[in-house]
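Researcher: Next entry in the queue.
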Amino acid sequence: MIAPTFLQILGLSALLLSTSAFPATNSNEIYYLANCSKCDITDDNCPYYRSLMAYYLDASKSENGQLPTATSEATGLLTWEGNTILGSFTGAKDPDFSATIDQDALNSQFYNIVGSGKTESHNFTCYKDSDRLLYRKGPDYCYSIYWCQWVGQG
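Model: Structure for this entry, 154 residues:
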């Protein structure tokens, strides 16, 4: 076995220090494109009546009905598909998020890539969700139609 030289060890130490000296960007943040109803959508008489974007600083905090870190709410029901929608968020690391969802996204299988999103500092990949209940607040039941997650650098 060949022993590493002092310079190789020094170089490796510098690399380790340079990567750990700067905190990693939170790759756990996630945006949901959601539609809300005033009751459980499994009831046929319970249509969606408005749309919103929900931002979670930590995606794991969006799995069990928790309220989002911030929301950007529309005045009515949006058509996500075939459009670019801009949301503004108070409390998000980047206050503006835009999502572009493919025209035929409603026909995609759950969890397939259906579009993209963007903040000032990151690009996001958007996926088709299963219309699962994201959270309840007051009279609203908000269901995830799509989610957008940062997956890598940029």
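Model: Residues 1-25 have pLDDT under 50 and may be disordered.
Researcher: Noted, moving on.
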